[in-house]
Amino acid sequence: MSEIALVATDLDGTLINPQGHISEFTRAVLRAVEESGRDLVFVTGRPPRWMAPIVEETGHRGVAICANGAVVMDLHTEHIQTSHVLNEEQAIEVAMRLRQLLPTVAFAVERVNGNRRSKVEFGREPHYIPRWPTPDNPPLAPIEDLVVGGNIIKMLARVPMPDHGVEPADVSENVGSLGPDPTRGFASAPLVDDFLAAAGEVIGNLATVTHSNPNDTLLEVSAPGVTKATALAEFARQRSIGPEGVLAFGDQPNDLPMLAWAGRSLAVANAHPAVLAAVSERAGSVHEDGVAHALVEILNLKI
Q1: Phi-psi group of 292: left, alpha or beta (phi > 0 → left; psi -120 to 50 → alpha; rest → beta)
Q2: Least buried of 129, 168, 207, 212, by fewest C-beta within 10 Å?
């Protein structure tokens, strides 16, 4: 088997536990990976504005692939090395098609400004109900206004959870968390899977659509062809690393392209059924530091 030169791992539900924490053992293993001379890359659906707590929690100041592959970000300087964005026309067309599919859908946008984080990174429609902390006083406007100017790294489309008998989370309860918990199986799980399948049909090649949390009827829309795999493949190519030198970990549908591309891929035990079906190797669950234990065994790390 080829020598592993690059370790790529998803965050929420894979490395970050349901309480929003990373254990001391996992932090020690991540340090050992970097000290071994291998590249360590966090490959996440999180936008850049959600990465500061990860840097603080892990001490990792290398590179992260954010927003499902739309952004490659230097975690030390917060400089955006590359970005792949939706333009205004694409975003409006996506919104129109999704509204025709599900009239109750509400939208929000994440954006950047060239090689920098944007002064206004997040905006939402008034009826888009956030389930996690957002910047103070985000712009509230129809999606047609929010997308003006483009530079959209991710458009969020949510069907209101109360429509399906599931109460929205209290944002105030989640302020201290590093992010969402995608490890539980709420009644919304089959709903978001069905939503994703239907949305993929109506959006077609106009954009890339995925989801990362079975507990929320939320879709994440990126520029056409943009996935975690495309960004990771380009990052590896720049370092003369082929897929055979990459070890990847994930848990949700947005991880599937990355897991299919990497030479060796493991799904954590708590992964989405589609991921468990697609990936033959398993790590322990996020509740048991599964990624860290797998890294120690596969890379023969000394902790």
Answers
A1: alpha
A2: 168
pLDDT at 186: 45
CA 78 to chain centroid: 17
Pairing, β 63-66 against β 39-43: parallel
- Helix, coil or strand: residue 300: coil
Direct distance between the N- and C-terminal alpha carbons of the chain, in angstroms, rounded to an integer? 23
Taken in order of first residue, the domains within the chain and their CATH numbers are 6-83+227-299 (3.40.50.1000), 88-222 (3.30.1240)
- Distance, in Å, from the CA atom of 233 to the CA atom of 108, rounded to the nearest integer, reads 28
Sheet holding 63-66, edge to edge: 80-83, 71-74, 63-66, 39-43, 6-9, 246-250, 264-268, 281-283
Q: What is the pLDDT of residue 245?
A: 98
The CA distance from 260 to 254, in Å, is 11
pLDDT in tens, 44-99: 999 999 999 999 989 888 999 999 999 999 999 989 999 999 999 999 999 999 99
Q: 80 CB contacts (<8 Å, ≥6 apart)?
A: 48, 71, 72, 73, 74, 112, 114, 115, 116, 117
Q: Provide the strand spans (E) within the chain.
A: 6-9, 39-43, 63-66, 71-74, 80-83, 106-113, 116-124, 152-158, 208-210, 218-222, 246-250, 264-268, 281-283
pTM for this prediction: 0.91
Given a contact cutoff of 8 angstroms between Cβ atoms, the answer to whether 110 and 153 are in contact is yes
